[in-house]
Amino acid sequence: MSAHAAAPPTVSYVLTDEQRQLQEMVRDLFAQRAAPDRVREVMLAETPGYDDALWQELANYGLLGLTIPEAHGGSGASFAELAIVLEEAGRRLAPVPLLSSAVLGTEAVLGGATEAQAAALLPGVAAGTTRLALAHLDLGGDLLAAPGVVASRDGATWHLDGTAAYVIDGASATHLVVAARAGDDLELFVVPGDAPGVSRTPVEVLDLTRPLATVEFAGVEVAEEDRLAGGPAMAALHRALTAGVVAIAVEQVGGTAHTLEACTAYARDRIQFGRAIGSFQAVKHRLAELLVELESARSAAIHAARVLAAGEREELAIAAPLAKSYCSEVYERSAADGIQLFGGIGFTWEHDQHLYLKRAKSTKLLLGDPKHHRALLGELLAL
Amino acid sequence: MSAHAAAPPTVSYVLTDEQRQLQEMVRDLFAQRAAPDRVREVMLAETPGYDDALWQELANYGLLGLTIPEAHGGSGASFAELAIVLEEAGRRLAPVPLLSSAVLGTEAVLGGATEAQAAALLPGVAAGTTRLALAHLDLGGDLLAAPGVVASRDGATWHLDGTAAYVIDGASATHLVVAARAGDDLELFVVPGDAPGVSRTPVEVLDLTRPLATVEFAGVEVAEEDRLAGGPAMAALHRALTAGVVAIAVEQVGGTAHTLEACTAYARDRIQFGRAIGSFQAVKHRLAELLVELESARSAAIHAARVLAAGEREELAIAAPLAKSYCSEVYERSAADGIQLFGGIGFTWEHDQHLYLKRAKSTKLLLGDPKHHRALLGELLAL
Amino acid sequence: MGVDERGLIVERIEALFASHPPADTDERSFWGAQFDHGLAWVQFPEGLGGSGVSPRWQAVVDQRINDAGGSTRNRINNVLGIGMGAGTIIAHGTDEHRARFLRPMFTMEEIWCQLFSEPGAGSDLAALSTSAVREDDHWIVNGQKVWTTLGHLAKWGLLVTRTDPDQPKHAGMTYFIVDMEADGVDVRPLYQITGEAEFNEVYFTDVVIGDELRVGEVGQGWGVAMTTLMNERVAIGGTVQPRESGAIGEAVQVWRERHGEDGDPVARDQLLQLWAAAEAMRLTTVRAKEAATSGTPGPEGSTAKLQWAELNKRITSFTVDLLGPEGLTYPGGYSFTRPDGSADVDGAPHKRFLRARANSIEGGTSEIMKNILGERVLGLPGEPRVDKDVPWREVPRS
Amino acid sequence: MGVDERGLIVERIEALFASHPPADTDERSFWGAQFDHGLAWVQFPEGLGGSGVSPRWQAVVDQRINDAGGSTRNRINNVLGIGMGAGTIIAHGTDEHRARFLRPMFTMEEIWCQLFSEPGAGSDLAALSTSAVREDDHWIVNGQKVWTTLGHLAKWGLLVTRTDPDQPKHAGMTYFIVDMEADGVDVRPLYQITGEAEFNEVYFTDVVIGDELRVGEVGQGWGVAMTTLMNERVAIGGTVQPRESGAIGEAVQVWRERHGEDGDPVARDQLLQLWAAAEAMRLTTVRAKEAATSGTPGPEGSTAKLQWAELNKRITSFTVDLLGPEGLTYPGGYSFTRPDGSADVDGAPHKRFLRARANSIEGGTSEIMKNILGERVLGLPGEPRVDKDVPWREVPRS
After folding, report:
1. Residue D147 — very low, low, confident or very high, per pLDDT cuts 50/70/90?
2. Angle at Cα C356 formed by Cα C303 and Cα D314, nearest 5°?
3. Alpha-carbon distance A307 to A300, whole Å?
4. Rounded distance, CA B231 to CA B239, Å?
5. Number of domains comprising chain C
6. Any chain A CB within 8 A of the CB of B282?
């Protein structure tokens, strides 16, 4: 029953002064550098699928190594700080590979690499020159399903064959962290994105602001030293995915907050029947409900990010699926309601609300949908 | 795939002139004889648990034998006409054992009795002097679960032992139609309510307008001639329960219609902030949604009643669970919203809305809840 | 009477089929003959494509045409004319309008579009500001309209304008038929969240319309527009579809293909909830159709529109969820093209999910529909109005 | 500063515990001493039960008392006084009020009730019509109040009256403390849908109240009442509960007892949806409590009240469904009794299901809460008002 214990008091929900400064700085940065026109420009460009200048700027501010130890070029902060960046990125749909590289890839390396491997990889990640992507799904795409890539060993060399599906930022990453089956075991390999035998095909995605790729491996040779050998690969993968789940929840809160703000501003300005539409209860009450839902979602996401940062693994096992299931549904509902609240204009390509709807729908399905996470929660709570 | 075929065109949704006259007559009758004060008087009285004078009046109008052949004292109409009576009864929560006697009991006899047994029983049912109740649930109370009564045969005499739970109008019925296990078979027996060895205990019910009883059988002797022998008992029981399910859906439509009408009238009259509350979108829109839901529920219930009346068994297998699952949820939502719309007064005992909420909750759970019926539907549709 | 009507209609169908075998006649010729036989809109007067009988016989006619291999696709492909414009012209047009416009509308020689909504006048249509100023025997029109289905294909448009800004908003409007090929009419594609441009924006710059193309009296445009809109709301969601068709049919198909009997029980229960709601709604259209004895669309039509819109949104969203990770994709990509025809929806569930978001906006938002149901059907009082009884030009707008 | 406050409070707790060991002192004496040590409402001034520090230290005090075996049940059992009346008296009362009422309120020697709502003034509290007419140094009160929790046990009532019907509705009210044992006060039980009478109706017939019991200026009653209501809405739903307690705890218990791991997956997913919502809401109260640095309750409290009410209704209804056929029963029957104490809910899930229906009505309906959130938190404009700026007696009422 210890899994039932309430959140430990070590977790604080109030931002420190430093965290508040970080939040303001990042919010301003994305407001300037990830304005809607820029987001659209990047998302409609053929390549590279992200905004490299903005990415470098994030690196310059030390925001790509928040969870990376200082010894490996990071800032040695925590996931609580990274969560602040992710929320603001979600608010603007910032076109940078934070989820793939700073969360999924970094956590997989932190969990699975030897000290030497970490020392070789992570400084580049923190500097923004290495961009990681996690390739762990087969074509069926179930979370934690047997990966579609098989690794076979030949002396000090491994060969990878098969297909990894729905790889986030898979086409633009410099390195792929590949989960592969090796007999009955799972192994993680770090493979350059342009290694011989690797072919990467962009997926036609619903959410153009987050590129996905299908990555095929045909006899790709990987040296044994590029197999993450610091611990059990399954645990490292689990760590990466749990962090990914929490990151998505935080990002969803940012998107929901944006939706509420944008809709509220519109409801104050838009006049129909001689009145601002926000004076009609149909609009006002829906926005009030959205506010309530947003605040709850924010609580769930912050809680998960804080317990992750605090390393409270038992509580994280509850907090992560709680956050992912709850925030996904709030984001989807708010993004869809947003279209309705904006009315006809909200249904046009030129209006931004659809970008949030598509992000909401995609993140709801990514890394396990709400039902999946509730089932996890049920197991943990023995319900 | 034939189960998928759309409703056959033989079923008409428009009332005939005769049916419309019946509807008006019954509506007037219940408006006068089942006014709220009278309903409360009957529901709070220790005995008999129903309004005998009203019951006799229904009998005098021929309304208790609508589905009984003329040869057995009925009017030889159909379930379509009975549905009209049930909807109006549901609208007023009329304190009469229509569901137990005119639907469940009558259908069990019609389905299970020999011609001679029907001739002996049904004229009394149509005349209102015989009131049937169906005793088919064990204490677990699952729909169609193995009954809690066991029948053992000794020559021409049967002995019944065990407990039947949640028997609708079980304490006041003159006769119980008892489903009992006899070895691997199911049998139906008709037992006088005051037979030696039968003890009936009223249940403390949520919905005081519909009494339930626990009926215990201790070595109750039943003659072989009182075993329904006209056909397989399981089929007769299934027929009775299907009719009961449809009857409840129809009754739920009546209750929903009453709720909408009462709330709408209140919303027109009740003034707050210098305006009728029905002028506020929070109230107006909820009532509009309720109207939409009511009309759909009505369609589902009428459809089920008509296909039952037309004997279209294949379509009935879809229509009955559709109606029960859909109408149950609409009724519950509308009855609960009704309390909210009436505000504080709706939370008082003296206001009638709670009687509808309790009826809605009870009928939702009675004879299988919505999830149960959707599961049935899923099997039929092979989903 | 019903017996006489049926006899008349059956007789005319047989005459039509004898002279123009549906399967062997080109569409345009057949529709012309159908019009001439009084079978285009059976409730219309003789000589105007009708037979002066109850509109319920139209379903019999269309069924027979389809059964005989003919086409009724003109009703869809020229829906704004045949479904909405024709009734408006019959009710409010001149004899010249009726003689000039109805037949080529029905034969699809001339496509029609509707020019009501504006950027500042959506739900509050009566706030519209596109101006028409009279000069002698013609009017000069300036302004912008949006959400113009088929605007790029249309020959004629149904246009509502502001002709007197000093009247209260509902009193200063006038309704016209406008030639979409006239000078000063600029039709631009309006791309939607699906990546397609099903609608257009239409800009009017000093467009000249002869007074003979005015429909109804000057200042009576609101009443004429209401006739058009009532027809629209009946057309949306009010037709009887087969069981398990449309959005729920697609959901069932995805379920069977990808999940089936071993599927997640939670998703199955959600599917069955939607199935039940869709079927209950469908049965309501069956019931409403059977109950409808007159051809005058009333506020009941709003029930179907509201319910259909909300349910369609729920079902199409659920269907994408059923796709699992494939829900992350958009098969075919965002094309930025202009689809053929009108608002019919096809293609992958993903596109239908996005397209359905507009269901509760187009043809009257769900909020407006609830106002209508609450006020016109349930008799609830309206809200205090700040935009009535004052000149249009003094009412705040955005 | 926080360090000083903590030190002060800890010191006072220790002094209190030394002189009055919580486990060994009778409740009334202990609460009196707690008041005298400035630990009743820590944010209040010295001498009035307070220590003049941030209200967040109150939680520390109460925790310590509970840990030491003492009781804080006075906060629940005299909630209308301690939770709402005290803050009102501090903010708007006279020094005499503060000296006379606070201590016996805290010790529960005198129970308090609230007399705001009327049959014709529910959500629209400012429409109230109970009249107070001045005669020399006293007032004569006539009218009816409803929903008076603890009315039958109370010594004192917080009463809002209409003193000037010719003023606009918000301007003509005056607030009093009324002696519930005075002549002309008639308290009658008000039975609810649970079969119990948790509330009362209170009738006033020529009740005399001395002017010294007026709170705030004549005509300023609305502002005083708002202070009371803000405290109420914070009290409802705003406290931090343990995980899986309250309604969701009961639902989980029913699930474990009757369903458990073999239970229906559809019901399990519904349970988990509710669990997640309840936990997210609970975490919000944790977060809000941590963020609260000042003791002034603001509109944020409305979030918790709205969310808690709606969720509690859903959970308690779902719990009855989990009971299956036992949901048809009402264990113990409808008793038509008056329960002890205030609005705390216990007993079978059936009764909690019924009781929860009032959650979204009492203390501000969910509709009113949404107006407040929309207007005060989100800054959306209000609706056009027809009941302002005109004399109260001319505004339509029901």
Report:
1. very high
2. 65
3. 11
4. 12
5. 3
6. yes
Least confident of A100-104, A323-327, B180-184, D285-289: D285-289
Indicate whether D1 belongs to any domain.
no
ipTM of this model?
0.94
Which of the residue ranges C240-254, C301-315, D174-188 has the most confident prediction, judged by mean pLDDT? D174-188
- Tokens at residue B308, please? 């039952």
Q: Give the gap in angstroms from C-alpha D190 to the nearest C-alpha of chain A.
A: 31
Q: Using CB atoms, which residue from C124, C317, C328 is nearest to A273? A: C124
Is the distance from CB of A243 to CB of A194 less than 8 angstroms? no
Closest chain B residue to C384 measured between Cα atoms? B279
Tell me which of C232, C244, C250, C290 is the catalytic residue: C232
The string of pLDDT tens digits covering residues C190-208 is: 999 999 999 999 999 999 9
Asked if C99 and C170 sit in the same domain, the reply is no
Q: Do B288 and C373 touch (CB under 8 A)?
A: yes
Full residue range of the structural domain in which residue C76 is found: 7-106
* pLDDT reading at C318 higher than 50: yes
Beta-carbon contacts of residue A183 (< 8 Å; ≥ 6 apart): none
Active site residues of D: 232
Average pLDDT over residues B267-282: 96
Residue pair D105/D85 in contact by the 8 Å Cβ criterion: yes
**DSSP secondary structure string, D258-279?**
HTGGGS-HHHHHHHHHHHHHHH
Average model confidence (pLDDT) across chain B = 94
Find the CB nearest A276 among D275, D276, D381: D381
CB < 8 Å to B375, chain C: 269, 272
Locate the chain D residue with the closest alpha carbon to A14: D291
**More confidently predicted of D396 and A87:** A87
Domain boundaries, position A165:
134-226
What percent of chain D is predicted at pLDDT more than 90? Answer: 76
Q: Is residue B182 a part of any domain in this protein?
A: yes
Same domain, D150 and D51: no
User: Is C386 close to D383, i.e. CB distance below 8 A?
Assistant: no
- From chain C, the residues in CB contact with D264 under 8 A are 265
Q: Is C164 exposed, middle or buried (0-12, 13-18, 19+ CB in 10 A)?
A: middle
Domain boundary among the residues C64, C89, C106 is at: C106
Interface check for D381 against chain C (CB to CB < 8 A): the answer is no
- Chain segment A210-260, per-residue pLDDT in tens: 999 999 999 999 999 999 999 999 999 999 999 999 999 999 999 999 999
Kind plus residue range of the DSSP H or E element containing A189:
strand A185-192
Q: Is residue D391 part of a domain?
A: no
* Cα of C264 to nearest chain A Cα, Å: 10
In a domain, B118, yes or no: yes
Give the chains touching D; criterion: ≥3 Cβ pairs < 8 Å. Answer: A, B, C
Active-site residue, C232 included: yes
**In terms of domains, do A158 and A282 share one?**
no
* Alpha carbon distance A293, A260 (integer Å): 10
Neighbours of D115 (CB within 10 A): 29
Q: Is the domain of D134 the same as that of D67?
A: no
Q: Give the integer Cα–Cα distance in Å for A136 and A165.
A: 8
> Hey, what are B342's tokens?
């009436």
Record the pTM. 0.94
